Amino acid sequence: MKKTIVTGGAGFIGSNLVDALVERGYETHVVDNLVSGKRAHVHPKAVFHELDVRETEKLKELFKGASCVFHLAALPRVQYSIEHPLETNEANVTGTLSVLSAAKDAGVKRVVYAASSSAYGDQEELPLHEEMPAMPKSPYALHKYVGELYARLWSELFGLETVSLRFFNVYGPRQSDEGAYALIIAKFLKQKRERKPLTVTGDGTQTRDFTHVEDVVVACLLAMESGKVGKGEVINIGSGKNISVNDIARLVGGKVEHIAPRIEPHDTLADTRRAKELLSWSPSVTIEEGIQSFLRQ
């Protein structure tokens, strides 16, 4: 039985990935400090380790014998990183360096890194493709981009296989709907359940490429297995379609209330050709299907 590690495995994307690994018969270990993850989300057949990813020596011991480490642990959210740049840099940059170093020292074959489409910032052209220069507009976006650079460098310097997946606005089961930084679809659904107005930042014309977590999990598994990656490649994982926040609000249904805009890219849209070429991956869940599955719950 192959051993795999998922950092951030008690979180939204991580716990969905852990479920898939366990179901496929992998010996799956979860590393999470439970700052934002939930112990209840961890599959009962996974081995849980309450650790911070900056505890490099402990990670090194745990990583021994692992074929793949999925590094998803992070302090996410753009606005939070603007308000807490030192704290988030420690978690997102130092934490990533710690994971890569531990993986290298433990003899791990491959690290799959959860990067972010926020690294693109605002670009003059859409769709966003991997050859575009990074233009981060927040500390969080910068942190995730620096992680990509570290991953590629660790491949070049030490021969550690790495691949960075730039996730685009992931949504789905276990998505957080709590606090000021809740992800938009989960936030709208919670407001609808509570019969409150859907709060739209700015004028709502900003567009996002929303990607269902089921599709993201499949991409992670393919990135672990593909013989075409491992040298620090950066690959977009998005639906290849974008939709405005106003249209999301219409799909969810209910009264809308506009609130102050935030510092964020106005539009995102993934070019997914590289994912198809290197991972044989393509998205399967449409935004309409994804939201309808939520509304039926």
Characterise this structure.
With 297 residues, the chain is α/β, with parallel strands linked by helices. The chain has 2 domains: 3-171 and 212-238 and 269-279, 3-Layer(aba) Sandwich (Rossmann fold), CATH 3.40.50; 184-207 and 242-267 and 284-296, UDP-galactose 4-epimerase, domain 1 (Alpha-Beta Complex), CATH 3.90.25. Helices cover 39% and strands 20% of the residues. It has 10 helices and 13 strands. The protein has a 7-stranded parallel beta sheet, with helices on both faces. Strands 7-10 form a two-stranded parallel sheet. A two-stranded parallel ribbon has the order 8-13. α1 (12-23) packs across α7 (213-225) and α6 packs parallel to α8. The longest helix has 22 residues, at 85-106.
Share of helix, binned? 25-40%
Q: What string, H for helix and E for strand, traces the elements in order?
A: EHEEHEHHEHEEHEEEHEEHEHH
Indicate the mean pLDDT: 95
Overall shape: it is globular
CATH class of the largest domain, please?
Alpha Beta
CATH topology of the largest domain: Rossmann fold
Structure annotation, total helices? 10
Strand content range:
15-25%
Largest β-sheet summary: 7 strands, parallel
Q: In CATH terms, what is the architecture of the largest domain?
A: 3-Layer(aba) Sandwich
Rg from C-alpha positions? 18 Å
The oligomeric state is single chain
The rounded distance between the terminal residues' Cα atoms is: 35 Å
Residue ranges: pLDDT <50 for 5 or more in a row?
none
CATH superfamily of the largest domain: NAD(P)-binding Rossmann-like Domain
Structural domains: how many: 2
Structural class call reads alpha/beta
Strand order of the largest sheet: 3-2-1-4-5-6-11
Beta-strand segment tally: 13
